[in-house]
Amino acid sequence: SPVLVPCLLSLSPFLSFLIPVPIIVPCPCPLFPFLSRGVPKPFTEVIKANIGDAQAMGQKPITFLRQVTALCLYPELLANPSIPEDAKDRARRLLAACGGHSAGAYTASPGIELVRQDVARFLQRRDGVTAEPGDIFLSTGASDAIVVLGGVVTQGTHTRWTGTPQYPTGTRAATPNTLPGPVLGLYWYWEWDHDPQNPTRQVQSRQCIEDVIKFAYEEKLFLMADEVYQDNIYAEGSAFHSFKKVLFEMGPPYSEVVELASFHSISKGFMGECGFRGGYMEVVNMDPAVKQQLAKLVSVRLCPPVPGQIVLDTVVSPPQPGDPSYDLFMAEKQAVLSSLAHKARLTQEIFNRTPGIHCNPVQGAMYSFPRIELPPRALAAAKAQDQAPDMFFCMKLLEETGICVVPGSGFGQREGTFHFRMTILPPTEKLQVLLEKLSSFYTKFVKEYS
Amino acid sequence: SPVLVPCLLSLSPFLSFLIPVPIIVPCPCPLFPFLSRGVPKPFTEVIKANIGDAQAMGQKPITFLRQVTALCLYPELLANPSIPEDAKDRARRLLAACGGHSAGAYTASPGIELVRQDVARFLQRRDGVTAEPGDIFLSTGASDAIVVLGGVVTQGTHTRWTGTPQYPTGTRAATPNTLPGPVLGLYWYWEWDHDPQNPTRQVQSRQCIEDVIKFAYEEKLFLMADEVYQDNIYAEGSAFHSFKKVLFEMGPPYSEVVELASFHSISKGFMGECGFRGGYMEVVNMDPAVKQQLAKLVSVRLCPPVPGQIVLDTVVSPPQPGDPSYDLFMAEKQAVLSSLAHKARLTQEIFNRTPGIHCNPVQGAMYSFPRIELPPRALAAAKAQDQAPDMFFCMKLLEETGICVVPGSGFGQREGTFHFRMTILPPTEKLQVLLEKLSSFYTKFVKEYS
């Protein structure tokens, strides 16, 4: 059946092109490798506000996650009195589930059975719907799971639908190593003013999700839901609705028929553990024969990294009230999330103070996606250099300020509009300076090209 | 250009078949999921001698590797006086090379630059030939690198050559998600009595490698060399020759033209750190345009897991004489390797004592691949059950003894011969019991079917 990839695939010609051997889709490329060399710069540091890499921007890891992982990797630490007992209990429980009681053994290809059970319990609590460990495949981060599943459920001739703009992992998922079928972008979120979360940082409403599910049902589509930002909701009145929960609340025929895969990751949320490469996907209503092929395909690379599986376990099964690690865990988690919420508001405020920059509320995720007005002479100058106008702006910004953001044309955007994506991750003080620098640069740029 | 995958691809019809959506090649499947259920067994434990998973079989991790990794993941341990200073220095050096000084940040897609430099220095010492960090791509284990490269250099219409028998990672590398071209097995190693290392545990001679390189040159093939067992050489007179070293010793035109990729991993050798999923590939003489596509393709899954990159760094740049960790590191490394050498001899001795079992010297790697004579009535019984004769034998072995080995038909073997692959990894005492049990079972089996 064809594939619906909401919040994922893009129609942007900048993103999908064909090359003779495998089909490779460039990401919304970091621009800094293109920074001109050998000339003095008016800045001392490149600020990479282009990628959702929280710890690279100074976010501190959550202690409990790291303690459990370090204990599993170096069990001599079980004798260390400064590490709390619940972390040690967790490490013992996880090691007992590993081959030879070692994090150095292969696990089953879909992951450690115990961790899959813990994920299933987490999903059951979250959605109030039964979740089976057998439907859960641990992965090397969400992007890995999307690529693997994309290889199973898509074929060259399939039509793929997506919300636009979007983060191009999904574009890649549906295309690498398969013959290219058409990829159609859906601007409807955009028009209805509830957009996908990355890059547009808006939180999908329950109604929007229902509409996507109905569309998938009518068109017999396989639904892929990227839910890695489920903890990153900041705006009042916004809430995370999982596709699975909505699907089951809608009831038959939807809940019995619509094939769904959802993805989660340890790289975002309050964890920001990008380097560990951990995550999972849950499949719902998947054809058993396809599921068997999926199981075979995940076995090709043997198993997901064990340290990432360990971190994932601590995330889906965190310390509970009364546990020695509970207070610190909650304090650290809240500190990260409230700092992000503060920076989301700050971003929106400073941008909207600047004439010509329009920034919707950053309801969730880790990014702002402001629209920028560009004067006709800037469009002409971009055309002369054979660049998209927002790419031209972003390159100038980088050369003059060292601030690296991603042009909106990397994600797909409505014809004739221009955006850039910037993370809200830099530490508050740095972010404030950065936003003000960007705002002044924009004003100067507009003056220069008017 | 077509692809030569020595020591990798197999012609076995058991291994490659086509399914409508992606092309998936089953591995030499562990048989234990097929163990009959609900009937009492004449054994208390399934012994998984089917997979090279050292730590699952009780091998202890190397202390230095785990200390450095635990320090990087939980830097509070830098204050722990019981961890040696060189491990701490290493951890500090690696953390300084990570974004935000954290193992939780994404690294560059081909890996941490510092680790790539350390790998390049390791290769230069090993081969006496220049190695460039830019030619090194860190990976999520060797199988991951093989799959990714396979997607770049193969196309449906390419002919792929391989040594036979072989471990099927390569078969998978060349086939998933690409249209299937012919895969041709080369039995020449077999005939010349210098076989690829896994499963046939023989060490390729320098002459054999030269012949493969000449063949690749003449046929304009891309050469993929799986060198994950480079530390696992036990037999006197055997030595590891890297394809790169031999290629450069042969000089022009070979050294200037033949495109080569070689793979290494932290899962084998003396490390056995399978769970961390770490490794690298080095590409030599690769067409720059293809290399650029490879770089894009590895960026799809963002970066290899950082804990695996850390372990890899300790492996390519181990403690040196005079360092506080040196003595323990060398003692642990030698203990693992000499135990494996001892078990290699033990395996060969016990098998060759059994009439009808023929086991060549286990020169390297972690496996024996004995040939077994099977009586005509066993062949008929297997045929009646629509099984390969060695599959039939291995299933009976599993049901009666709990010993899980892999039938030779999973790797490809000369028509009319039968083998199985068994690891030499169980602890010595357990291995001895296991070998004797297997030998008695074989004798009984032959009697039963004669």
TrEMBL record, chains A, B:
Residues 196-438 form the Aminotransferase class I/classII large domain. GO terms for molecular function: L-alanine:2-oxoglutarate aminotransferase activity; pyridoxal phosphate binding. It comes from the Eukaryota. Its EC number is 2.6.1.2. The keyword Protein biosynthesis does not apply. Its cofactor is pyridoxal 5'-phosphate. GO terms for cellular component: cytoplasm. Residues 1-18 form the signal peptide. Pfam families: Aminotran_1_2. It catalyses: L-alanine + 2-oxoglutarate = pyruvate + L-glutamate. InterPro entries: ALAT1/2-like (IPR045088), Aminotransferase_I/II_large (IPR004839), PyrdxlP-dep_Trfase (IPR015424), PyrdxlP-dep_Trfase_major (IPR015421), PyrdxlP-dep_Trfase_small (IPR015422). Keywords: Aminotransferase, Pyridoxal phosphate, Signal, Transferase. Belongs to the class-I pyridoxal-phosphate-dependent aminotransferase family. Alanine aminotransferase subfamily. This is alanine transaminase. It comes from Otus sunia (Oriental scops-owl).
